[in-house]
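Format is chain and fold; as here:
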Amino acid sequence: MSKSVTVEIDEATYQELERLAQEWGARLEEALADAIAAYLAQRKAYMNDPFFQIGKAGHSGLGNLAKAHDRYLYGKDRQ
């Protein structure tokens, strides 16, 4: 089931989007729907990528992590 959304954008943005839609051989509405779907898919992939979850893991419990990060990363003190 499709839904309609109305948004207001400035004239310059509208003209740019219209130009891009014409380049793609699509109507503005189709190009915008495709762009939104692509953005949402990219965002979902980003949010599910384990690499980007590292910062959300919380506290390591290692009090000296800033000073001894080389030991934790490489297994030894770096020279």
Q: What stands out?
A: Helices lie at 11-24, 28-48, 65-74.
